[in-house]
Amino acid sequence: xxxxxxxxxxxxxxxxxxxxxxxxxxxxxxxxxxxxxxxxxxxxxxxxxxxxxxxxxxxxxxxxxxxxxxxxxxxxxxxxxxxxxxxxxxxxxxxxxxxxxxxxxxxxxxxxxxxxxxxxxxxxxxxxxxxxxxxxxxxxxxxxxxxxxxxxxxxxxxxxxxxxxxxxxxxxxxxxxxxxxxxxxxxxxxxxxxxxxxxxxxxxxxxxxxxxxxxxxxxxxxxxxxxxxxxxxxxxxxxxxxxxxxxxxxxxxxxxxxxxxxxxxxxxxxxxxxxxxxxxxxxxxxxxxxxxxxxxxx
Length: 298
Ligand code: MBD
Ligand code: FE
Fold this sequence. Notes:
Blueprint: E1 8-9, E2 16-17, H1 22-28, H2 36-55, H3 60-76, H4 83-90, H5 93-105, E3 145-154, E4 165-169, E5 190-194, E6 200-206, E7 211-212, H6 218-225, E8 231-232, E9 235-241, E10 248-254, E11 273-274, E12 277-278, E13 287-290, E14 293-295
Parallel strand pairs: 3-13, 3-14, 10-11
Antiparallel strand pairs: 1-2, 3-6, 4-5, 4-9, 7-8, 9-10, 12-13
Helix pairs in contact: 1-2, 4-6
């Protein structure tokens, strides 16, 4: 048997045998200065990658096809598009890692606001806004205008948190984030709000719509090959930060949205499903959306 791990066909031609020491030899190449965490993660990754290849009798052509998808994802990615992240998302990896991180971080009976994946469309330096402002700066004749409001509290004491920042972003009525769409003003439907003494926040946004994740690249090819749709239920993203508290990356989901049970990136959690309520008496809003955020201190 070849010592480099090449598969050798046995007498039957069907079953294959592999060098039983090959994977361990690769793991053993790790040097003494590797940190314990690097040692653990790389050993496990090598083991799973090798098992994956052996179990599926992965061919050179199939491995090359996978490699080409990864390289194409890299070539497509820039500060407006993160195709590698999208690939992780459609395989449920970002949601799984989020769940692992969140579960490990919380063993309390009353829970802080649940987390959900960041996704590829967050941008840093969203415009700072005042309470009561709108994040809608374009296409403002379209879409259901919504007044969102609530309070940010310490989930243990229930006390309002002063100086908490809500970074919010969502899609336009055409189903595109502003950086995907040359027709939208820069930073449309994004904003950062900071709470005052009473911990409350409020702003105007739109009721988002379900939309397809970009499927003109590797993630789309995989969705097609797997006979899957690319749609996400309508959602609004948040990052909530406050000094002394663990930051929360999350999304809230419209209960009445299509795909709420069938998110292409597996991010929906029950506690993050919200109700948009018809709203009268404010010409600036068709809907009201109350939602409170609860943070855990460090
Ligand atoms: C999105 O808009 C999104 O929020 C996630 C998580 C993945 C792809 C597109
Ligand atoms: Fe999103």
